Amino acid sequence: MDNKRLIYLDNNATTPCDPRVVEEMLPFFHQSYGNAASRNHPFGWVAEEAVDYAREQVANLINVSPKEIIFTSGATESDNLALKGVFEMYQKKGNHIITLKTEHKAVLDSCQKIEKMGGEVTYLDVDREGLINLEALEAAIKDNTILVSVMWANNETGVIQPMKEIGDICKKHGVLFMSDATQAVGKIPVDPKAVGVHLMAFTGHKMYGPKGIGVLFVNRKNPRVKVTSQMDGGGHERGMRSGTLNVPGIVGIGKAAELAAKEMQQDAERLSKLRDKLENALMEMEETYLNGSKENRMPHVTNISFKHVEGEGLMMTFNQNVGVSSGSACTSASLEPSYVLVALGLGDDLAHSSIRFSLGRFTTEEEIDYTIDALKKGVQHMRDLSPIWEMYKEGIDLESIEWSAH
Amino acid sequence: MAYSDKLLEHFKHPKNVGTLDKSKKTVGTGLVGAPECGDVMRLQIEVDEATGMIKDAKFKTFGCGSAIASSSLATEWLKGKSIDEALTIDNMTIVEELALPPVKIHCSVLAEDAIKGAIKDYQEKNGITVTVEESSH
Asked: Contacts of residue B38 in chain A, CB cutoff 8 Å?
């Protein structure tokens, strides 16, 4: 195996920082190091100006006003702030939140905390394709419902939810609509106001920006949305998020947003072709299954189960050279397979057998060719070793076997 | 997670992969785990009737790298041992040999259970008093 070659196909976990972003950030570490809240000297003015400019760059990318951008430390904090902040702010109106079983843990765990704080949360099922059932959503809305939280695109499958339709339902019932758009912003056109999203979380490091900087969009007019701050201090970010602004990070996400606005279309077109090439080649192998909707999904993601092969073991055949991720239990401390794939109705066995490939701006066709080859060899190696593949080939019904519980 | 060289070697070039004829009286088969749990190990031994020694051992495993390496190592250790000696193979010895991280200890437990399952099957087939203790795991 070529030990020098390293191929990164895990861009849904994090993206490399674009060198143009890094270049923009550097002066703000050691030259223009002022605190953006220092209003009385040039050090502060320069920092504040840079922050204002970045705020515009970010606002432009999602077609909102710069005043609606709250900088945080990342999407997890933004999700926490939106959910808990709305729950606290709108207590008089109600205490019920609706979300999906396939949301990111930052949303699900915040919702669990809200339940402990006296809130009520409905976790909606998704269909086989990973999509929300709009009728079920509408039926779940009650008099005390204050918020619907649905992720724009799923991190594991890349499935994109029907945001406009959800927004219309929320509007009809006078309920706030929040979205974790971490995987979508900067990759596909995202316009929260056009679809009726009132709060939206995303982060720098999934769009070729730096880690440690996130955004919460909070709608300012019709309706004017407010969240109770979760961090007390100097009253930064219009009182919604205290803490000295991360100026280099903000400059970085601003530049990343500007680049995304210019380049996302060509990136998406190129990456969807490469993704399709990878997917088609891998799906030629027998007993492979595509997870999630093929039509409604991100252009750079594919999630495939290789039946009778365990995902982490499969990754070990090539992970010296190719970085991907798996829904296999063995990759998590809990030993439970991906709850997202299980929510799509996959059996635990297929969830254990899944690999997620997420391409990025710097992925090349040659890398995809190498990966196809590595995967085919890896699947073959693992199937040669697999007793259940042997049984399958002999025509034994695996369901008929009494497996020992362990 | 970085794996030990021994583990990687057993994973990349597993020893004794294959299938013994389970209908033979001299062959004992242990099948443990479940596809839903992400681990299935099938470990087989063939006992030399004259000497009572394990003359061959084979495995196939559906699972992560640690599960595959654990079963490969177990088959290596089984060959040439008597049944009594084989029963002394403890999961912690596998953990130490392969330097398994804590989250992978269950793979070694599965290998120990597979060994015991194979011995039990052999003993039952041959009307020998089963000396395998119930799994403590």
From this structure: 310, 328-330, 335, 337, 348-349, 352
